[in-house]
Amino acid sequence: QVQLVESGGGLVQAGGSLRLSCAASGSGFSINSMNWYRQAPGKQREWVATVTSGGTNYGDSVKGRFNISIDNAKNTVYLQMNSLKPEDTAVYYCHAGITNGLVVFSYWGQGTQVTVSS
Question: What DSSP designation does 87 have?
Fold first, then answer.
């Protein structure tokens, strides 16, 4: 069983920065991809960013402001969020595609609140 534990959310003023972390714990797994999603009140969950062995990708709304990175030794993914805007306010969820070598499983973190004040 794999668990994802997120941290780093909080309240920040517009133009500020935050860094989210998501640590995967467990045994006997390897990571295919790690991703960040977000969900604002009354809106659908939105994909934010992905990191794989092949590189990174970002949603259009965060491109140039957010940076996703992974520390493979710690099985931890980070989301550095810069130039934050009020519209970035949401619950941010970590997602991992994890394989046991045969099957890829999908795991979600519990979410962490990010609030950007204007």
Answer: G
Q: What is the pLDDT of residue 26?
A: 83
Cα 26 from chain centroid (whole Å): 18
In angstroms, the CA 30 to CA 65 distance is 28
Provide the residue type at 35 as one letter.
N
Which run of H or E residues covers position 24? strand 18-25
Q: What is the DSSP letter of 15?
A: T
In one-letter notation, the amino acid at residue 70 is I
Which tens digit of pLDDT belongs to each residue from 58-105?
999 999 999 999 998 999 999 999 999 999 999 999 999 988 888 889
Alpha-carbon span 68 to 80, nearest angstrom: 6
